[in-house]
């Protein structure tokens, strides 16, 4: 009989069982060094987004990372949370888009993300997994604009969008906390985007996201 253990059980063990110095040492090894973690019950409180599809309803093929065209999205916030850029990453190839935003409101984000996606072939834009930030409140209109179905992760569960979270960490190497994204041009963003997409990745046997992605186009 095959035994399986969920990520939930692993995180609970890491945060609950160890004590004092041992706990600090273990948490320091995690990608995100939060000293506390909300319970699953707390994370499953009602979503502020209306009429949404949960990540639990997402097609199995998304998790398997075999079929391309499934994306994760987020905002990277600027100084004092007064500005932001969008990050979109494809789960199979790790191709990344950095999106210049005119604002953090739902309409601005919807239009900017739709414009970015509409340059892609239909077969490479199937779903988008997002957190429950209000900037995706117009997800129904976004789907109408792009034919991309949006699925929402559980509250306070960044590992459900792990590819995007890791990408955001890479973006922070170029734009550290405190950056005013209102002063960062679209050209600067696209230059960083190309550096990320031309970076060899171990997961691709050291091919770049660009190389892997463009193989899908031919």
Uncertain regions spanning at least 5 consecutive residues: 39-46
Tally the helices: what do you get? 9
Across the major sheet, the strand order is: 1-6-5-2-3-4
Largest sheet: 6 strands, mixed
Count of all domains: 2
**Number of beta-strand segments:** 6
What is the CATH superfamily of the largest domain? Ribonuclease H-like superfamily/Ribonuclease H
Question: Which architecture name of the largest domain does CATH use?
Answer: 2-Layer Sandwich
CATH classification class of the largest domain: Alpha Beta
- As a percent range, the share of helical residues equals 25-40%
Structural class: alpha/beta
**What coarse outline follows from CA principal-axis ratios?**
globular
What is the rounded Rg?
Answer: 18 Å
What is the mean predicted local confidence, pLDDT?
87
Describe the 3D structure:
The N and C termini lie far apart (42 Å). Helix content is 37%, strand content 14%. Strands 1-6-5-2-3-4 form a 6-stranded mixed sheet, with helices on both faces. Helix 5 (106-117) runs parallel beside helix 6 (139-146). Residues 39-46 have low confidence and may be disordered. It folds into 2 domains: 8-36, no CATH class; 58-216, Nucleotidyltransferase, domain 5. It has helices at 7-16, 20-28, 40-43, 60-64, 106-117, 139-146, 162-174, 186-197, 209-216; strands at 53-54, 70-77, 84-90, 96-100, 127-130, 149-152. Helix 6 links the parallel strand 5 (127-130) and strand 6. It is globular and about 50 Å long. With 218 residues, it is of the alpha/beta class.
């Amino acid at each position: 009989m095959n035994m399986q253990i969920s990520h939930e059980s692993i995180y609970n063990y890491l945060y609950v069982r160890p004590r004092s110095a041992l706990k600090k040492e273990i948490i320091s090894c995690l990608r995100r060094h939060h000293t506390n973690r909300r319970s699953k019950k707390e994370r499953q409180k009602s979503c502020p987004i209306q009429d949404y599809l949960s990540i639990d309803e997402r097609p199995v093929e998304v998790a398997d990372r075999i079929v391309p065209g499934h994306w994760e999205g987020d905002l990277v916030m600027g100084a004092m949370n007064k500005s932001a850029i969008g990050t979109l990453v494809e789960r199979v190839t790790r191709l990344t888009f950095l999106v210049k935003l005119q604002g953090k409101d739902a309409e601005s984000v919807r239009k900017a993300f739709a414009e970015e996606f509409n340059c892609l072939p239909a077969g490479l834009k199937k779903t988008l997994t997002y957190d429950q930030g209000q900037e995706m409140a117009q997800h129904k209109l976004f789907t109408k604009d792009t034919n991309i179905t949006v699925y929402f992760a559980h509250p306070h569960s960044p590992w459900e969008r792990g590819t995007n979270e890791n990408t955001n960490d890479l973006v922070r190497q170029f734009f550290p906390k405190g950056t005013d994204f209102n002063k960062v041009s679209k050209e600067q963003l696209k230059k960083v985007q190309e550096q990320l997409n031309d970076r060899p990745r171990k997961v691709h046997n050291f091919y770049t996201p660009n190389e892997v992605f463009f193989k899908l186009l031919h």
